[in-house]
Predict the structure.
Amino acid sequence: MSLIEIDNLSVTFRAKGREVQAVQGVSLTVGEKESFGLVGESGSGKSTILRAICGLAPVSGGTIRIGGKVIPSPRGRDFSRRVQMVFQDPYASLHPRHTIDRTLSEPLAIHGIGNSDARVMQVLEDVGLPTSFRFRYPHQLSGGQRQRVAIARALMLNPQILLLDEPTSALDASVQAEVLNLLNRLRAEHGLTFLMVSHDLAVIDHMCDRVLVMQHGRAVEELSREALAAAQMKTAYARSLFDASADRLLGPTPEPVK
Amino acid sequence: MSSLRLWLTDPNPTSRRQARLGQLWLAWLRIRRNSLAMAGLVIVALLVLVAVFAPLLAPHDPLVQDLGRRLLPPGTPGNLLGTDDFGRDILSRIIYGSRITLYIIGLVAVTAPVLGLLIGTVAGYFGGWVDAVLMRLTDIFLAFPRLILALALVAVLGPGIENAVLAIALTAWPPYARIARAETLTVRNSDYIAAVRLQGAGAVRIIAGHIVPMCLSSVIIRVTLDMAGVILIAAGLGFLGLGVQPPMPEWGLMISSGRKFLFEQWWVATMPGLAIFIVSLGFNLLGDGLRDVLDPRSSQSGSAPK
């Protein structure tokens, strides 16, 4: 049975009398411990799907089921313990006036879980941050370190599902690889299910078992990792996306001759 | 002493308490670098000390009249700042008056900003009709000149120190609500608020723990800058006879009673006026300094321990 089932989901934003259909009739399923990718250009509605799952975007049609049950609205505490999200911009997703310690122990306080001292130290080690960083403020950390803190925060409640909204697009290339490897390790260690958004097929290829290509709020094509590696796309749009990042997908290519 | 300093400035604190005290220490260092703010802090600290030790500092009882020694000029032996029209020592009255001033300031400072913060953050966070109702209420209060509204309230409630405080507090909260609402609107849709909402936090926790800290620095600065205005309004109410009642040694009241002799015995009104001036100046300087200390941008560039 699939862990996440999204059926015919539509999201419509209303602003000043104008309606914007960000997502139109998208369906997807993600199995347990699977890593599923959503890829597409800016404004294709991929991040909106994640936000809709979290209750941060207005769902106008379709259903979202997790573990076979339609998720309640508002989402509630059981949902929080099951699903957590890592946001795109680590500079905006940590409270600037809270220490790392406060940020990480907050979910424990909300859910009335004790022993926060030991848990905070444990999760810092899990994401590869020195425990001496515990009482620093976000502005005292680099972008990669901040994103590790954001990942640590998402892990505090031991969720089953991690929603990743372009977790590395704000980071530079070397840090990007570190964070992706960290995420892969954590997925193996904690048995997590990933639903990951990216505009970069190379990142998706590194992380995901299956990928859904999106354009203009609609699903274009679903590909397995094997199909992606063998460049077996059926639609022209998926192929153009693939061509744009093919050189990085197929490993390091020789320098172009000048 | 130096080991304590090392413990406070340790970049890698080992406990929550040490981290919090270290932050306070850094804030203290920042304010100490600002000489004007320190001057303001010294004036405010002196006000507190004078109020606490008034019975020890005052040379005379502020209420005992001696009609044989009325309207003596400053510098008279035994009456350093002179005496008023009932022969009471002006210095002693100013010293005791600091207690009333501090009492008024203290009560206003714990009521008006708290009320304003609450209304502003709730309005900004929930939006919609809650926002509309609360902000129109704020507009109504803002539409009246403060002193006039305070006068009207005191006239309804009756004169007296508590009613004066109540009137001042009820007229002082709208600017705080406006500031808090504006700050709330800028942070309510940020990712870190979305993250804590996703963790299952309720509205009370989000507002109190995550939004209020973002509003606090601008509100604190506004409070210290407003304190001068509060002192003046309290003095104004006293002057009009609607605040503290005679024979209490309130500064505004003292100016009011000295008005009759302003040309011949200038010191009766001038000395309490000077006291109001100095204390207002102290709060203004402190407010300006706190702006530098609490502003997140300046603290970001100045304090990051490496």
Observations:
- DSSP finds nine helices and ten strands in chain A.
- Residues 2-248 of chain A form a domain with the Rossmann fold fold (CATH 3.40.50.300).
